[in-house]
Design goal:
This protein is mainly alpha-helical. The protein has helices at residues 3-11, 22-31, 65-75, 81-89, 131-137, 142-154, 173-187, 196-201, 204-214, 224-239; strands at residues 36-37, 43-44, 92-96, 114-122, 125-129. The protein folds into three domains: 17-46, no CATH class; 59-154, no CATH class; 173-239. The chain is globular, with a radius of gyration of 24 Å. It starts with a helix and ends with a helix.
């Protein structure tokens, strides 16, 4: 090799090998449901079926080990998280509640306006299972399924927001005050008002819908998760 060729080789720009970046290796392993080590050194095990549901229908026992393995491999096959969430959400149905059993008085109960049914594919048959079986068979957790259920109730497709925020901007004080005033307006009378319609409006999903209807300009600023967080904080203060 000549001196000129050697110099060119030395000055050649290094190529970006993003597939070798540790954070990208973690992302790929997570999407495939494989074991990985976080950037902080924590070991996260592979996705696998959880414990039996324990319900009277014994939903998890309706699937043999091969079927359980197939469910995990079909979901965590490397496709983007948005697609994985959309697949899970397609197996959830939001059902309106038409009848209630009088277990508590209207002022004591926090009534729901809808319920959810969960389904699994067993071969070519789509069968209904309990929520715990749905969580266990997919190797996920109840919090993730609840998020997808709430989005379904709102008619919203799941979207992975991880890594998409370039900077975290604080909500202006005046907008934060609008949220808190809206929550207080509905929540402050929960122990005194007795109408079922009012109690149904206290569903956080319904409250969020009403908030966006009142302040449509805040739709992109105030997401459901943020509204829920503020409502939980207010309810904790109210109960203390």
């Amino acid at each position: 090799m000549s001196l000129v060729q050697n110099r060119k080789s030395t000055l050649t720009k290094r190529q970006r090998r993003e597939e070798d970046w540790k954070r990208n290796k973690i992302k790929i392993a997570r999407l495939k449901g494989k074991e990985y080590v976080t950037l902080k050194g924590k070991i996260v095990g592979p996705r696998q079926t959880g414990p039996p549901c324990g319900c009277r229908n014994r939903c998890t026992e309706k699937f043999d080990e091969d079927e359980k393995d197939r469910i995990i491999s079909d979901l965590y096959n490397g496709r983007p998280k948005d697609e994985q969430d959309a697949h899970l959400q397609s197996l959830i149905e939001c059902v309106q509640i038409n009848r209630r059993r009088p277990r508590k008085t209207d002022t004591e109960a926090r009534l729901r306006i809808s319920n959810f049914h969960y389904y699994m594919w067993k071969g070519d048959e789509r069968i209904q299972v309990c929520k715990q079986a749905f969580v266990s068979l997919h190797g996920t957790n109840a919090k993730a399924v609840q998020r997808l259920s709430n989005l379904l109730r709102l008619g919203v497709q799941p979207e992975d927001q991880r890594g998409k925020h370039s900077s975290r901007k604080l909500l202006p004080e005046e907008d934060l005050q609008k949220i808190m005033d809206h929550i207080k307006t509905i929540r402050s009378n929960r122990y005194t008002l007795e109408t079922v319609n009012f109690l149904e409006a206290q569903s956080v999903v319904s409250m969020y819908k009403l908030f966006i209807e009142k302040y449509p300009e805040l739709k992109d600023k105030v997401k459901y998760d943020y509204y829920l967080k503020l409502d939980n904080s207010y309810m904790e203060e109210l109960d203390n």
